[in-house]
Structure formats: C-alpha cells, structure tokens
Design brief:
This protein is an alpha/beta fold. It contains 17 helices and 14 strands. A hairpin with a 5-residue loop joins strand 1 and strand 2.
C-alpha cells in the first residue's frame, strides 16, 4: 500500500514522502546487517536552493566555453550548440528503442546515413554505431579480430603488437580479449621501428593476430612508414587495427583505408564535436573492410530501397556489445556536425594541424622539443629543462591554471620524460594561441627567477593545492560533511 505523506520542511517548502508498505527491505529478504538503522538524511530544499547547488557544481567545472583546453589526445574542440538543439528535438527524445522499425524510420534513417558518412570519411566498407567510447570501440574491434581468426581456424594467433607510444586503452582492450601484448619500439624519429617490427613477426611466426596503431601517433607525428607496416602485417596474415582517436588530424585529407587498415574505431566525441570528459557519454563506432562485414555486432542499420531496418542475421557476428543501438543522442550530434561541415570537414583538420605547428614553433625555444619535426594536430614537449631547475611538469600544469588555462595532458606518452602534450584543436583563434604561448613562456621565466611561485601553484583556484600523496595513500571515496572542504 503506497502512502503519500506531506511534510513541512525547514525552509518552509512542502515536501512529499512516498512510503510503500509493500516493499520493505525485510520483504525483499535482505540480510539485516545491511539494513540502515536510521532514516536516510535526504536534503529538504527548495527549487532555488537546488538550482544554486547545481550552478555551484557547474561553476567548478572547466569546459571549453570557460577557456582554452589544450588537453592533448582528447580533442577538446568546441561543440556547436546546434548539435544540442537538434538532439533534443522531440521526434528523437520521445521515441523508445523497442519500437518497431516502421515507427522509427527517421531515427533509423539518421543512423544509416551516419554509417554511410563514416564509411565515406574512413574508406571502410561497413560500420556499427554501438561502441560507447573509444576504448569500447577498441574492445569491439579486438573481439572481431579474435572471432575472425577463430572462423579461419588460425587459433594460434594469440598476440597483438602495439607501439611503446600507444594510449593505455590499446593494450588494455587487447588484453581484455585474451591477447598477449608485444611491444614494438619507436625509433629516434618517433616512428615505429620497422626493423624491430620485422623481428617481432619473425620471432612469432603465425602467432600475431593484429597490430594496433594510431596515426598520427601519440607524439603527434604522422607514421611515415604506414604503407610498409601494413604490407608487413598483411604478408604475415595479421590484421591492422586503427585507433581513430587522432582522426582530427587527417579527416578529409587521407583515410585509414588508403593506409591499409582493416578495422577502425572513431571517437565521435573527439573528432565529431560531441561533449565528453565531464560533459556526457561518448560514442566509438567501428568500421571494417569487406571481409569483416559479417563480424560486426548486431543489429546493424540497413536500407532495402524503401525502408530502413535493423538487421540481425550476420553470419559471423560477435553478438551484442551494448544495449539497443548505442548512445543515440551522441550519434545525432555527430551527424549534425558532419552535415554542417559538409565537404569542408577537411578544413577543420588542416586548421587543427596549423594551430599545433604554430604553438610548437612559439614554444620550442623555451621547452625541450624531443621530436623536432613538423607535427600533426598535437605535439609533445618535455619539461626536462625545467626539472633540472627543480620544477616538475606537474607544477607547470598547476601554474597554468592561475593563467586561466586548462593544463595540457601531462606524463603521456610514456616515452617522453616530463611530457606536456598540447592539442589546441581548430577551434582557437590566433589571439588565444598567443595568450597561451605567452603564459607558457612566462612560466618558463618564473622557473628561472622565482621557482617557488610555480611550486606553490595554483594560487587562484578555490581549492588550494591538493595533498596528492595523502590523497593517494588514504583514499576516501565517501563524501562526508567532514571532508567537504
Ligand atoms: C582518447 C583516446 C582513446 C580512448 O578513447 P575513449 O573515448 O576515451 O575511451 C584511445 N586512444 C587514443 C590515442 C586516445 O587519445
């Protein structure tokens, strides 16, 4: 029996408590030791107080609308607000994934056309939209690799080659699928060491299932020998997997098909302007070449000439990796972005590359540039010079916050000591880039003249310097009144 109990709360606003006699913890058979002794302390606040709470939380968040956000590898570009508007149209928000195909033709058409656009942009022959992030796309891709070799009977292919510069999700995804990870070295030019790669194939004859690569790589350098790498992989019967997280550097200019890749994931939330980080769920669609089409998860969205439909009967499908059709809202935003850019998508990549090179040139006299080559959409500095003066990269990152910039990615990729990985994206104008460069140069000078200023940073944020060692040693995940500050 459900009862509604009206109560007067402390700030004078009437509240409603719903008490359901039929569903007590006891009736659900819960062990008494897990039952609470007292009623939960639920906040009783007015709408205004609730709004203030959420506004305060949002003010604590730094987003690309707050300022420059050069978080390398994350492509924190501006997400045009038209994307949000379109994803909130009621024809999209008021449908349910269990509705029949004929009732949701518009949504299916959008997904089908997004698949077609991604095919054209990447050169792949088929796509699934299911992946809910880059890492999830990788997992899906590696499941396809595994299942492919199961159906060809080559079950001794149990190893995956990954460069030492790779993003951590690459070995993690391959490892989750049961593959053994073999590391290929980068050479002094920041490129995959081809001799080492050949040796690895020699030493592990018939056992390599795939090479996982991103291009440009995590140093922001274009992998110049990609065609040779693809030749070596294919001559040895292995597949070539493309981590598309760095796709913002090349879209419309070249594509993974031309480079010889067999499987691709894209990060719609990076390249195709949908919010991520604290801002929302992502999407990691996976594209494959013709021979792997049948291995995609189901359903894929298809079109028979008159209507759009969800297709389940793929001969070798790996099954399902996600409920329903993936993160539909993200798909709408990415499709809106692609339509808006049309055949000028390429300009976004070219501007991103130009911005990165501009910043690199402005900063390389002040910070060590370990790989001094023209870069793609990002570049990696080393804080070694500053470390020798007693200030680590972590402190430089914190000091940047005083200048109202989001810090770059730090300590990644692992092959660069004291790494600062900077990705400006195409969204920024010259004035912003100059301001950021000036802040970085000022910090480099501060380290020479007044290092303590940098060591004690940040000075301007509401929460002062976090005691990181204590936080790591005595991790407290419970939000209690006492640790509120
Ligand atoms: C971001 C990124 C990933 C993982 O993507 P998520 O969407 O964060 O899971 C993989 N590889 C590279 C190079 C990345 O930058």
């Amino acid at each position: 029996m459900t009862k509604l109990i009206f109560e007067k709360s402390t700030d004078g606003i009437n509240g409603v408590n719903i008490i359901d006699d039929d569903i007590s913890e006891e009736s659900l058979g819960i062990n008494p030791k897990f039952l609470r002794k007292n009623k939960p302390e639920l906040p009783q606040v007015s709408e205004l107080e609730a709004m203030r709470h959420f506004k305060e939380l949002s003010d604590k968040n730094f987003c690309v609308e707050s300022g420059f956000y050069p978080l390398g590898s994350c492509t924190m570009k501006y997400n045009p607000k038209i994307n949000e508007y379109l994803s909130l149209l009621e024809g999209f928000t008021d449908i349910h994934p269990l509705q029949e195909d004929e009732d949701v033709q518009g949504a299916l058409e959008l997904m089908y056309k997004l698949q077609e656009a991604l095919k054209e942009i990447t050169g792949m022959d088929a796509f699934t939209l299911h992946g809910s992030a880059g890492a999830h796309g990788e997992l899906c891709g590696m499941m396809i690799v595994k299942h492919y070799f199961k159906t060809t009977g080559e079950t001794n292919r149990k190893k995956v080659i990954i460069p030492d510069s790779a993003h951590g999700t690459n070995p993690a995804s391959a490892g989750m699928c049961g593959f053994e990870i073999i590391r290929v070295n980068s050479n002094e030019k920041g490129q995959v060491d081809i001799c080492h790669l050949k040796e690895l194939f020699e030493e592990n004859k018939g056992e390599i299932a795939a090479i996982m690569l991103t291009n440009p790589n995590t140093l922001g350098l274009f992998e110049e020998n990609i065609l040779e790498i693809s030749k070596i992989a294919h001559a040895n019967g292995a597949l070539l997997y493309y981590d598309g997280a760095n796709f913002n550097a090349i879209m419309g200019v070249t594509n993974p098909k031309i480079m010889g890749f067999d499987i691709v994931h894209l990060n719609l939330h990076k390249t195709f302007a949908t919010p991520h980080g604290g801002g929302g769920p992502g999407a990691g669609p996976v594209g494959v070449v013709e021979k792997l089409k049948d291995y995609l998860p189901v359903p894929v969205i298809d079109f028979d000439g008159t209507k759009y439909f969800r297709k389940y009967n793929l001969k070798n499908t790996i099954g399902k990796i996600k409920e329903f059709q993936g993160n539909f809202g993200v798909l709408i935003k990415a499709y809106a972005y692609i339509l808006m850019k049309g055949n000028t998508l390429k300009n976004a990549s070219m501007d991103a590359v130009m911005n990165a090179n501009y910043l690199k040139e402005k900063l390389k006299d002040y910070y060590k540039l370990p790989y001094n080559f023209p870069c793609m959409h990002e570049f990696v500095l080393s804080g070694d010079k500053q470390k020798a003066q007693g200030v680590h990269t972590l402190e430089i990152a914190k000091r940047l916050m005083d200048y109202k910039f989001h810090p770059p990615t730090v300590y990644f990729p692992l092959i660069v000591s004291e790494a600062l990985m900077i990705e400006p994206t195409e969204s920024e104008n010259k004035t912003r880039l100059d301001e950021f460069a000036q802040a970085m140069i000022t910090i480099a000078k501060e380290i020479e003249t007044n290092p303590q200023e940098v060591l004690n940073a940040p000075h301007s944020t509401p929460v002062k310097r976090v005691d990181e060692i204590n936080a790591a040693r005595h991790l407290d995940l419970k939000f209690t009144k006492n640790n509120k500050e």
